[in-house]
Predict the 3D structure of the following.
Amino acid sequence: MSAWWFRPELRTNVPYVLCLLAILVTFKPTAGGNRTGDFTVTDSLPGSAHTLSLTGKATVAGARLSTTSLSFAASPQSVSVTGVGRTNPAPAVTLSSSNVSFPLQLVGTDSAIVTVKLTDSGNSTLYFSGITVSGDFKQTNGCGTRILKGQSCKIHVTFAPTVNGVRSGTVTISDNAPDSPQTIALAGTATAVTVSPRSLALSTPQAVGIPVSLPPVTVTNVGSSALLINGVTAAGDFTQTNTCGSSLGAGQTCSINAAFTPSRAGASSGTLTISDADFTSPQVVNLTGQGTFASFSRPALNFGNQLVNSASASQSVTLTNNGATNLGIVRVTASGDYSQSNTCAAVLVGGADCTIWVTFSPSASGPRPGFVAVNTSDASFVQKIALSGAGQLTASTVTISPHVAALSSMQIVQFTSNISVAWSVDGTPGGSVALGTITPGGLYRPPPASGNHVISAISTADPTQTDTAAVTVTNHAGVFSNRYDNRRSGLNLQEIALTTGNTNSSQFGKLFELPVDGRIYAQPLYVAGVKIPGNGLHNVVYVATEHDSVYAFDADRPGPPLWATSFINPSAGITAVPSNDVSELGPEFGITGTPVIDPNTGTLYCVAYTSEVGNPIYRLHALDIITGQEKPGSPVVVQASVPGKGSGSVGGTIAFSSSLQKQRCGLLLSNGVVYIAWAVFGAENISYHGWILGYDAATLEQVLVYNNTANAQGGGFWSGGVGPAADSNGDIFVSSGNGTFDVSTGGVDFGDSVTRLRPTSSTLSVVDYFTPYNQASLNTLDLDLGSCAPLILPDQPGAAPHLLVAGGKEGRIYLINRDNMGQYNPTADKVVQELLPGVIGVVFGSPIFWQGDVYFLGAGDVLKAFQLSGGRLSSFPVSTAGGAPYRGRGATLALSANGNQNGILWSVAWTTDQSNAVLHAYNAADVSDELYNSTQAGSRDQLGMAVRFSVPTVVNGKVYVATQSSLAVFGLLP
């Protein structure tokens, strides 16, 4: 405020008059910075009007007004008035979404939770006076009474319709922000009709012109009044009959029975359409089937009773091409205790046939089911016939133990007998160097080569009385890395002990458990033939825990660890890092990413996370696999920085933050460099980035640093724990999660992208990339591509031999050319092939490829196999597992096989942190054939509490499964 003294000019014959005029000036800035203005005084003096210029500078602090007293002799006069403005600190509410739409929901049920994140983006604490919801909706929240500036809380909303139709509501947030109340608009559609299932797919091809029935479709009226049914129709090569009539009473059901009569070879699709008075009418059931011209001469083969460990006479079945065009024979396989040979060439011309001979060799007594499967080019499905037979034990007074043994060539096994016997190996008394030798006391030493052998014990008193044991000699050197290799294939193709014939609850189960001190999220690793000082030769399984411990156990028998190393010292204030969000990985963070082993140097590399007097620190450790001791130069503290102006930058530099970043991916050892990738757990609103750091494996010197969002935020690397993949050239392939993508507009940030990286100088250079056209939507809806690691496929025939498969939370499958990945196109993805969302569930971890099939097990879904032929995936699964869908995070698969035979898919089911893990085994030739799960034998094989993203390690006849408190070891029962 200013005062202005005004004195008019003196004139002749006019007395001098002194006048006082007070003018008050107030400075009230509306924006920061220099502000200008003026006011004008008009009077009767010459030269009127008179102008006063005003200037001021507004800032956000130090608010004050200055008062200036001014006097002058004549008008006009001018003066500058200065002041400092203030913006009062206030909270501000930012919502991750102001509109929430729910998918179709059944009346009387609650939908899945949709979460809206509320952030105080202002300059002071946000206080809540209430959060309410209206309409057919419910809400819970973690906001409490206040949140500090910069912090966030979550509002969880569900749709709980009471009547059918379009329903709307509002979440209202009342607080002390200037724009209070804030609202979230809610919308959903409710139905009183359930139709189950919504899709039907025949799992096997059907001969053209021959009808086959599909499982029934059930229609239920869950409403409180009768439902008018206008009609039911079928389209395509499908027909239907139904019991629905013209009206369906409240709470009543009716059935629709469809039949498929293919009119041609190949894929066929159709629909069932139900027209009724419900708001969602018509309801549509999608139908798919396959027609084929191929047929078997017999629907099944039965071999009757057969002595265990002996081969039956062969039986034959004829495969005929009834069509006029050529039929490609992709592969012929036999499952279980059956083997096959055939005359089927790669092409079976129209009207021709070929013969398949099948032999039965039971490995145990009792029924031994199986099948012969044929993949042909006229349908993407497996065609098969059922095989049956029973194993029969010889009548004998001789009993030996064990009856089954799997061992490496460096081990020995002791056989015992109830009476005096003479021992032989494969019919040779005492065995031989090539077969393995057995002493008169029953001590068997295997041969150097892997293979299967039969130990016979012949009664010395009555040579007609015998007993036998099956021995498998394995020579797998070990599992040194997450998902078995740098391609992250998930494959062990040297497994000869476990077959589709003996992986069942009568022959296979839990052998023992090894207790540990914390949760095991890292995949167990395995090294064969480790000589432990003072303790002899062992096959060793290595286990890392969230309690910052590494254990080395004998892989074949229970007992205390051969050694254990801990990276904490509570008495000195060094502990695992406490978790503020137990819903992520548990009560503490320690070693989460799977270590990597260099078998040439005998070194295990792992990243440990410790809290040292309250300060979180990451260290890279290099341990001797024989002793568990640190190697020279180990450990090193993880530190890094890159130029950038992104989130968390200071002075144009972004420093790696041990408090914000979290290490989840498995480590990668490629060309002498240990690569470590980082993301974040849960809290997406903090200043994190996707980091990859590289360390010289010999010296632990940091040799490269890469940040994929240096000028922005997000883009973490986590992939359900699967590590970065590397091809034979050393190029690295990774998928990033939610974050900024601006490369298409000249930026350098790669959120929600699959990138091909090449080590150059001190960083990784982006050689090529693929970013989905809807990246912005994926980022907004937390549907990040980074949940699934890219799978590098073996070379394929066709124009694009170098392919990879990727997926993500959206449930979309991408088949990408590694030589031209497609980059970014805002209207359509430029990839080799894309299967739309809904074909599979949300994908975590990584798929698996074996013998022409790609396998997925998504969240809320079952195991599915898609055939890869001619450089393209089948548009729907070629085989689908039965049973209930996998809840939680689905499963990250592993596959064991002996080359191209006896393929078994292994998975560990996780529902919540309070549920028991369940180990499953499926026949890879047809995943509808579940061979085993750990609930089938009652409590005998029960596992402890589950951990998410658990990858079973299958090697040398054993399966190692991680839980929250122990490592469970499965194998063939003795």
Q: What stands out?
A: Helices lie at 775-780. The first strand starts at residue 2 and ends at 6.
